[in-house]
Amino acid sequence: MTTAATAVAVAATGGWFAWRRPGGATPAAAGVPTTTAKVTKIDLSNSTLVSGALGYRGDYTIVPRGEGGTLTALPDPGKVINRNEPVYEVDNKPVRLFYADRPAFRPFAAGMTAGPDVRALEENLKALGYLSTADATFSSATTTAIKRWQRATGQTINGRIDPGEVIFQPGPIRINTVTGKVGSDLHPGEPLLTATSTTAVVTITVPAGQTYLVHAGDTVTVTLPDQRKVTGKVLYLSPVADQAQQDNGRDGQVTVPGIVTLDDPQVGSNLDRAPVQVAITAATVTGVLAVPVTALVALAGGGYGVYKRNGAQRTLLGVTTGLFSDTMVEVRGDGLQEGDDVEVPSS
Domains in the chain, start-ordered, CATH in brackets? Predict the structure, then answer.
């Protein structure tokens, strides 16, 4: 809720009405049950609560290459596959995962021209400990590194890698769907698997009327289904709104989708598609004086005040309000300090 909106709500429903000017002692109001609360020095945050769902960043389609064969092994949905691990097998030969931002499109062998695909291959061989340096040129050191890799993984040692012997993806993958079947023929060029990254994210749904409260970079607190709270940031908010369709065919609420990244991207890795609540923090202040929102009273001349209590003495002090949270409000005013008692409704 914004500061202005909260102030209006307090004046209309939740606060006190003091149609007088601040500064003097006033008698206790008759017939209004009251108690007191302390003026505290705290950190306050202004948050917007939206719904979301856990998922994974990125969508990848694995399209096999090569000359075909028989599918002899396939991964199960949900399996995580890392560099150099088999993704699937053709004729009992594992097809292994290498990391790269683009797919391999030609055989790797001595005499090939330089290119970014060569650099990607060499960076993988280096990461696996088979090559000391990586560049974009296929050299004799590259051939030697391939042979070392082939020996270590039980392959035919020939110093070349043909299409279909490895697949390149941007990083570790988590298998989503499997369209092939063990024992069937492999059809190069046809999708075999779909996968995502292993980085958990939250897809949020923001009501269109609240998008002005949400910005890329805002910090968030995500409440998981087991009530754990984890932190993250708003990565992206779509410029395009969606309108849900209700079961009766009528148009539903207009919302805007967005993505939240988690500070610990593995924290929700076993909770795919689980619903979550996301509190998006738009503003934060630290070490400010604050009172319960219900301590505010509307002043006759405009603005707000609080009743400071000192035993039986009751003094109305004008205050300037700052950031509002769900239950507390930042206040500044002469004669008010940490530890003072202010009057609030008792219920």
Answer: 3-44+285-345 (2.40.420.20), 49-56+199-284 (2.40.30.170), 60-196 (1.10.101.10)
d(CA 153, CA 84): 9
Strand, helix or coil for residue 142? helix
Q: If 0-12 CB within 10 Å is exposed, 13-18 middle and 19+ buried, where does residue 215 land?
A: exposed
Strands 304-310, 69-73: pairing is unpaired
pTM > 0.85: yes or no: no
251 membership: H or E segment, kind and range: strand 251-262
* Distance of alpha carbon 197 from alpha carbon 279, whole angstroms: 25
Q: Are 301 and 337 within 8 A, CB to CB?
A: no
Nearest Cα to 82, choosing from 94, 72, 100, 96? 96
Residues 256-303 pLDDT 10s: 999 999 998 777 666 677 899 999 987 889 999 999 999 999 998 889
* DSSP, res 118: H
Q: Return the minimum-mean-pLDDT range out of 148-152, 243-247, 302-306.
A: 243-247
The mean per-residue pLDDT over the stretch 317-337 comes to 92
At 268, list the tokens. Answer: 């929700």
Q: Which amino acid is at 209?
A: G
| Cα distance between residue 323 and residue 126, in whole Å | 53
Contact yes or no for 69/210 (Cβ under 8 A): no
Report the percent of the chain where pLDDT is more than 90: 67
Closest CA to 96 of 152, 13, 39, 22: 152
- Taking the CA of residue 8 as centre, how many other CA atoms within 13 Å lie in the half-sphere pointing to its CB? 5
Mean of the per-residue pLDDT values for the chain?
Answer: 87
Question: For residue 304, what pLDDT is reported?
Answer: 95
Q: Angle at CA 30, nearest 5°, toward 25 and 33?
A: 100
Terminal-residue alpha carbon distance, the chain = 22
What is d(CA 194, CA 175) in angstroms, rounded to the nearest whole number? 6
What SS3 class is residue 143? helix
